[in-house]
Amino acid sequence: MSPPRIVLFGPMGIGKTTALRALCGAGSVDCDVPNLDRLSHDKATTTVGADFGIVRMEDGEELHIYGSPGQDRFGFLRQWLLSFAVGALILVDANDAGALDLAQQTLNEVQRHAPDAASVVLVARPATAPVLDRFSQALAERAGRAVPVMPVDVREREQLLDALELLAALLPE
Ligand SMILES: Nc1nc2c(ncn2[C@@H]2O[C@H](COP(=O)(O)OP(=O)(O)OP(=O)(O)O)[C@@H](O)[C@H]2O)c(=O)[nH]1
Ligand SMILES: [Mg+2]
Hints:
α3 (99-113) packs across α4. The protein has helices spanning 16-24, 75-82, 99-113, 129-143, 157-170; strands at 5-9, 32-34, 45-47, 51-56, 62-67, 87-92, 118-123, 149-151. The protein is globular, with a radius of gyration of 15 Å. The protein starts with a strand and ends with a helix. It is built from five helices and eight strands; from the N terminus they run βαββββαβαβαβα. It has 173 residues and is of the alpha/beta class. Residues 16-17, 47, 67 line the site of magnesium ion. Guanosine-5'-triphosphate binds at residues 10, 12-18, 43, 46-47, 69-70, 125-126, 153-154.
């Protein structure tokens, strides 16, 4: 049986590649090249393919982790990743005015292309408790169901492992 495949989604610069490196360490492969789109995000490099790494969970199970590219033009790659994903981690900045729309859009995309996949929304930039609460409530209202939302620092492996534990608990048997 193939190992469970988990995909990281989120806008450019939110920290998908950073999270994958923190989780999977030296064995991870990333597809970063110099960033020519400094208007969208002012950082040195950006992902132009699918990042990949492997995480061994506490119970010995291996998860295969893929990092999607955040730039709009790579929608086709995100769809391809969803064609084999069993779980999605959706990274957002809850302080960003567009975060709700983006989270909902991505949840819809997961639902459309991977109807059996589980999703967890990760608030990947510092947010106050009221901002987190408002975001979670508004997302649940829009989605018409409870959506798991948790804050993480994408540079902290332990926090990311907690997020994966939560997602793993929601995966279909
Ligand atoms: N100050 C601060 N920086 C952060 C935080 N989280 C992530 N970063 C930084 O934000 C940047 C995220 O960049 P990437 O990991 O390349 O983002 P990405 O989502 O893979 O972006 P694309 O591949 O371009 O879609 C890195 O420089 C991180 O160190 C945070 O909580 N605070
Ligand atoms: Mg990246």
